[in-house]
Design a protein that fits this description.
This protein has helices at about 50-55, 80-85, 105-115, 120-130, 150-160, 180-195, 205-210, 230-235, 240-245; strands spanning about 10-20, 20-30, 35-40, 65-70, 70, 90, 165-170, 200, 215-220, 225-230. By secondary structure, it is an alpha/beta fold. The structure holds adenosine-5'-triphosphate and magnesium ion. Magnesium ion binds near residues 48, 49, 93 and 171.
Length: about 250
């Protein structure tokens, strides 16, 4: 596979997607180096979640390539996508925990699905993971709806991380959270980055972008209209980004 950007770990090239004749993406292109975090911002309905879903093969573009570690996932069938999903974790907008299962069952799910670990090994992994995400060991017995919003988000992230993915896609991980829980999520994202995880963070929360991202891209009118490395954006914010950040433009 010829690569447009040789240094890229993830690259999206000329991505087009529409629903019922309505064009959402009209040539989205960007790349991310290994271990980097890209902040993806843009107004509601611009197609951020659809783009993330496409990166795990849950949506197919009409045109374009999605290369992950050099492999184009667009033509892949479900069997190959199962392997991609071990490598690429998607932390869904809203957590997407199974409400009828305890936290333990939620966290055990990917391990039972994808590994041959014994039950005591699974139990140990779950305890380690709860600790890693700052959750009390007794949380495993609780059902998602008995947890606070911040705890649900952390359990959602903990589940996404169970398979030690190389790539993590975060969809609004801090939406609706108070500053304390937002900080905990930022710390978890930074911890994953320190382990070499490559990530995309979709968010409306600019302080979190500043805290964890290396670069930021603005999705607007079906394309990436602006893209900056964080240091440059901080030094000289552009009018468009500034308007987006202060909520004057979507
Ligand atoms: N399965 C689908 N069928 C039809 N339309 C869809 C489908 N999924 C998404 N869309 C439409 O595609 C557009 C982009 O949706 P998407 O959820 O990606 O937006 P978003 O940028 O994530 O917005 P938000 O910031 O509100 O989460 C929206 O107009 C949405 O209604
Ligand atoms: Mg969304």
């Amino acid at each position: 596979m010829s690569k447009k950007w040789p240094q890229a770990f993830i690259e999206v090239v000329d991505f087009h997607k529409s629903f019922e004749g309505k064009k959402i993406h009209q040539g989205v292109s960007f790349y991310i180096r290994k271990g980097e975090c890209l902040g993806l911002i843009g107004g509601s309905g611009t197609g951020k979640s659809v783009l993330l879903r496409s990166l795990v093969g849950l949506e197919k573009p009409e045109q374009g390539q999605i290369l992950i570690d050099g492999e184009d996932i667009v033509p892949m069938r479900e069997r190959e996508l199962v392997d991609i999903r071990k490598k690429v974790a998607y932390a869904f907008q809203g957590g997407a925990l199974f409400d009828s299962m305890t936290v333990y069952e939620n966290l055990a799910y990917p391990l039972r699905e994808h590994t041959k670990l014994s039950e005591p090994e699974i139990a140990q992994h779950i305890q380690d993971q709860l600790k890693e995400f700052g959750l009390d060991p007794s949380t495993e017995k609780q059902y998602p709806n008995s947890l606070s919003g911040g705890m649900q988000k952390r359990v959602g992230l903990a589940r996404a991380m169970m398979m030690h993915p190389q790539v993590v896609l975060y969809d609004e991980p801090t939406a609706g959270l108070d500053p304390y829980n937002t900080k905990r999520i930022q710390e978890s994202i930074l911890k994953m980055k320190a382990k070499g995880v490559t990530s995309i963070l979709v968010t409306h929360d600019m302080p979190t972008v500043y805290a964890v991202c290396d670069k930021v891209a603005l999705l607007q009118k079906g394309r990436i209209s602006e893209q900056y490395v964080m240091s440059k954006l901080l030094a000289e914010p552009t009018a468009l980004m500034t308007n987006f950040i202060t909520g004057e433009s979507t």
